[in-house]
Design a protein that fits this description.
Strand 9 (about 235-240) and strand 10 (about 240-245) form a beta hairpin. This protein has two domains: about 30-115, Rossmann fold (3-Layer(aba) Sandwich), CATH 3.40.50.10860; about 140-265, Rossmann fold. The chain has helices at about 10-30, 45-60, 75-90, 105-115, 125-130, 140-150, 170-180, 200-205, 250, 265-285; strands spanning about 5, 35-40, 65-70, 95, 160-165, 190-195, 210, 230-235, 235-240, 240-245, 260. The protein contains ten helices and eleven strands. The longest helix is centred in the first third of the chain and has 23 residues, at about 10-30. The protein is α/β, with parallel strands linked by helices. It is globular and about 55 Å long. Helix 6 (about 140-150) packs across helix 10 (about 265-285). Bound molecules: NADPH dihydro-nicotinamide-adenine-dinucleotide phosphate. NADPH dihydro-nicotinamide-adenine-dinucleotide phosphate binds near residues 170, 193, 195, 197 and 270.
């Protein structure tokens, strides 16, 4: 029997609806509008689309977004000066610096300059540390979206063997931390795989829950998946056949119990979690 589809798009819409209600309540109680400052440096067309979509999402749930567009030749000091200004601005609750940054600008230096209280992407070392300690302020949007998907679809993670392919700071590592943390959507036994893992398929075949964030189109095939497993595909690749993920959807759906599609799986949830983090930042700013 073909796998059940985990519809991230529908779930993201439901979450946005909840956030719209919570945002309206926040505005009514505080007379301030949760506000996201988006910083877009350079002219990468994909980044342009991502930022535009994130701003549209804000609008849809009643949040404010302010775009700061900087030319590709912006210096690191100019960018740091803008971040310092946004850090101080009480009308700004969340700061998002769209990656990648133009050549010559050190990403780590910029991300560390963002106030941890406004760091809605959760990339600042303080927020990473808090996540590792199990007391997060913000959770990185993509793994947070995956965790919400599992929880809201009623997929049990406790005691299960979760295998994560990928160890990036943005997806793989925080995903593994969340799945192994105590509580809902956690308590799993986690294996992290990467490009140096020997016999990847031997690991993936043991997974009750397989999260794939390798950045390799269709690399996970049916023979790598345990029958009935939950397969979450984080990958996104623009190909001649349209958007595809890291999972060979057509073959894997015949083996898996549940599977996320691409598009319409993890992507929309990532965007919804950015809104959730922005509302959290606005709420925390009152504390
Ligand atoms: P990175 O390139 O930063 O990390 C990829 C990871 O996969 C690395 O840890 C790498 O190992 C590992 N890897 C690569 N090839 C293999 C292989 N053959 N076998 C096992 N492991 C492998 O990517 P990201 O984590 O940033 O993103 C992953 C994918 O998710 C991309 O397609 C990206 O576009 C997508 N993405 C989607 C989002 C969404 O909202 N849906 C959000 C963010 C990303 P090593 O460390 O050894 O190099």
């Amino acid at each position: 029997m073909a796998a059940q589809i985990l519809d991230g798009k529908a779930m993201a819409q439901a979450i946005q609806q909840e956030l719209a209600e919570q945002t309206a309540e926040y505005i009514q109680n505080t007379a301030t509008v949760p506000t996201l400052a988006a910083v877009l440096a350079g002219d990468d067309p994909a980044s342009d689309v991502y930022v535009r979509n994130k701003r549209k999402d804000c609008e849809r749930v009643g949040m404010e977004s302010v775009l700061h567009r900087l030319p590709a030749e912006t210096s690191e000091d100019d960018l740091l000066a803008l971040i310092a200004k946004l850090n101080k601005d009480q009308a700004v609750h969340g700061i998002l610096v769209q990656l990648p940054l133009p050549k010559g600008i050190r990403e780590q230096r910029i991300l560390q300059a963002i106030s941890p209280n406004k760091d809605v992407d959760a990339f600042h070392p303080e927020n990473v540390g808090r996540l590792v300690q199990g007391r997060p302020r913000f959770v990185p949007c993509t793994p947070y979206g995956v965790q919400q998907l599992l929880i809201r679809c009623g997929i049990e993670t406790a005691g299960k063997h979760a295998v994560v392919i990928g160890r990036s700071d943005i997806v793989g590592k925080p995903m593994a931390i969340l799945l192994s943390a105590r509580g809902a959507g956690g308590d799993a036994t986690v294996t992290i795989c990467h490009s140096r893992t020997a016999d990847l398929a031997a690991h993936t075949r043991q997974a009750d829950i397989l999260v794939v964030a390798a950045g390799r189109p269709k690399m996970v095939t049916a023979d790598m998946v345990k029958p009935g497993a939950v397969v979450v595909d984080v990958g996104i690749h623009r190909t001649e056949q349209g958007l595809v993920g890291d999972v060979d959807f057509d073959s894997v759906r015949e083996v898996a119990g549940y599977i996320t599609p691409v598009p319409g799986g993890v992507g929309p949830l990532t965007r919804a979690m950015l809104l959730l983090n922005t509302l959290t930042a606005a709420r925390e700013s009152l504390a």
